[in-house]
Predict the structure.
Amino acid sequence: MNMRIFQSRNFFLFLTLIAAATALGAANLFGILPAAGATLFLAAALVTVLSKKAYHHIVLAGIWLLFCVFIEPSPSDMLLCAVIPLGLISGHYKPKLSGPSLVTALLFITYIIACIPGILAAGDKSGALVYSAVTLYLLFSAMFIGTYGQRHTINPLLRAYILAAFCSFLVGLIGYCGVFGEFLMAGNYRVKGLFKDPNVYGPFFIPAILLVISDIKKRALLRTPVAVHIILIVFFTLGVVFSFSRGAWVSLVVALLSYFLLTGDLKRHLKLKRLIAGAACLILIAGVLFSPPMRSTGVSDYLLERAQLQKYDRNRFRSQQGGLELALQNPLGIGPGQFENEIAAVTKYRLSAHSLYIRTVAENGFAGFLSLFAALGYLILSMLRLYLRKTPEPVLGSLSVADMKEQAKEDLIFQNGRKSEPLSKEACRPEKNTVLAAVIAILIGLLVNGLVIDTLHWRHFWFYIGVGLYFVNCE
């Protein structure tokens, strides 16, 4: 048989189209991709096999579109559903996991397996299958981010996220100014942008804030003046504030404290002069928020109201208590996505879990709960070990693989054709990676936010799990 037939571009394109059609059919079977997404999916499928550069741009577009999730599947989901399988077929994406990243991936797979008894016991099996399929897709997307960065540094992906946050801020600002307010706002004051809920809109900015702060010194992510970094931090902070999400406010504080503790900057920022400057900034912000013009709009009063316990908080606490009762009654889990259906038997009301932890233990059982948080805990501990090691390697994410190899060569001094150790090891060792510290703080903040809201299907939550996998995978 002539092997050239199998090496021809037409034959390769034919196989790719078959794979795309199969993936699309499977997605439709589980209700993940509606018919409206077929055109975008197939268009991305065709482009990915025609150009390696175009493939990379589609990946970046998939991350940039993370700010647009008012429909499911979102445009980002459609693009990533295309690029992951087609990248494997075309050779544009060659995943490789090893060491701590492989252990983390196996723990996540264990979590998926632990969900099976709950699926079998679910009252709404089709709903449980769809919910599990979405979770599985998000896990694959995280693994894709973690392994795709091996060939392309993670920086372009992080830039795409910062751009997504900036676009989300602009969209929210448009809504706040009264344009498409019924679509972009939740009530009179809370901004939701292109998200379904302000409680997702606000936390979406927190990773961008941490990334921009971590980039101020080296400016490897954004090659712009420091003033641009500061402006972006102000914009993104306003996005968090005007979502009026209490969980987002707490998550931001926890993430910032975690970051400054890791980098050692907290002690520096606690000096008297900096404390006075910080207090002056807070007084200025408070003066603006509670000024007569702002009070006339009702924003000031609403801000004070949101800072207190709300009437519906009692229902949330009752829902979480009921979730624990469901977990004790069903140790193998009630099934993915079944919380709202089953909680009514306990609380007499159809309520959401409002907690990643409660939803996981109730729906996936104790085995699923332990495996999911073992995976997350192991990933964060691996990142901490990598960040805190005494002899850090060249900064991951800021150098390409070729540049890191060149750096390693320069670390050796050649004398008379023989290799010798560097004259000064400290001079050859770059400082610790602040981007890695930011990602650790981001994940900690997201896990804290998960105490009061269900973050399991947040796209940016899994994106940063993938970024964390990238760092430990590059070790």
Q: What stands out?
A: The chain has a mean pLDDT of 81. The longest strand covers residues 413-415.
